[in-house]
């Protein structure tokens, strides 16, 4: 609206939480900082149940020390003129106040305008060809310590400073897609097992894409050795990774519910628990445990799809396998030995040959680790999240696999041998069918 051109406020955004464009009284919280949400004006209906409907907003409001100002919503039927300067605002307001329907006008006068305050906020909305447009006016009495009723006569406005401001709705239906995320993921629930270097980034990426519910399972705490390739910063040293991720993610993304749980993969062998979720992602890098869990799922006819994901060392690549029940293709398809065509112990997707010492030890016994960078962890997390989203949105309906291929330079410098698949692989980042015709489970 043209009134936005008058916006010369000293605060940043006015974030308004509303569930209806109709008249209602508002609580308006002034900014109390220069950056972040502390620098924004926060607005919500007077009787809004923040605790159950918008806990994220409730936390932000609770941090404000000052008492809220009074505001209201006025739905305009039309706009008959445009204020070009601040001196035009009183006449513009009174002119458009007269356009309100009788019921709205009565509510404004009796429940809002008679209250004595030194600051009032009026937030307008109007239907336009592209949807509702929102804008607002802040009325502040020039004698800041004096409370007065709202001015309703032209001559009374000389005692008030009026500021025009743009309004941004704090609304998932607009903010989620505007940020490149997906509203249709809000009712999905994913179980993520493993919150290490790969799992931590998967958790953040899922939330950034609009996932509504995420349960995290891990028993580890953040150690000093983790900090260069883990999502969590050093401030979370010795904290459980699940709890650290819960705090970081829920303070970054407003509409995600994160549940931390202490445990491990094999403790989840309970089909009544597993079947609660739309998808399970396993990012623990332990093939033996993953195969044991897969055997349990087959035996008990688990209905939930599962993604297993892992990163190989030395930057050569990473993989994700999507196993959808009752579809051809399962985790065991990725473990068919290419030489004898029998079920093997090493994934046929790997780029590094088995039976090599892939770990390094920099500090003596007990500190062996698989060397790969933060970039490798993020790349594996990205292909995993992408595969998860495609499944949750119905874009991938068959069991599938996806890999990314990196440089072999570091591996060759360590005199490590690469598989034939590494040499011939040309489908990096492409989702392809998982089914292996020699899998004894899928071809019974």
From TrEMBL:
Occurrences of domain THIF-type NAD/FAD binding fold (ranges): 184-338
GO BP annotation list: cyclic threonylcarbamoyladenosine biosynthetic process
Coiled coil regions in record: none
Superkingdom in the source lineage: Bacteria
Listed name of the protein: ThiF family protein
The species this protein was found in: Acinetobacter marinus
Taxonomic lineage of the native organism: Bacteria, Pseudomonadati, Pseudomonadota, Gammaproteobacteria, Moraxellales
Molecular function per GO: tRNA threonylcarbamoyladenosine dehydratase; ubiquitin-like modifier activating enzyme activity
Residue ranges crossing the lipid bilayer per the database entry: none
